[in-house]
Amino acid sequence: MSHNTFGHLFRMTTWGESHGPAIGCVVDGCPPGIPITAEEIQVQLNRRKPGQSRFTTQRREADAVEILSGVFPDASGEQVTTGTPISLLIHNTDQRSKDYGEIKDAFRPGHADITYWSKYGIRDFRGGGRSSARETAMRVAAGAIARKVLGAGVVIRGALIQIGEHKVDRSRWDWETVDTNPFFSPDPGMVPEWTHYLDSVRKNGSSVGAVVEVVAEGVPAGLGAPLYAKLDQDLASAMMSINAVKGVEIGAGMAAAELTGEANADEIRIGNDGKPRFLSNHAGGILGGISTGQPIVCRFAVKPTSSILTPRQTIDTQGHETEIVTKGRHDPCVGIRAVPVGEAMMALVLADHLLRHRAQCG
Ligand SMILES: Cc1cc2nc3c(=O)[nH]c(=O)nc-3n(C[C@H](O)[C@H](O)[C@H](O)COP(=O)(O)O)c2cc1C
Question: Distance between alpha carbon 41 and the CA centroid of its chain, in Å?
Answer without folding.
Answer: 15
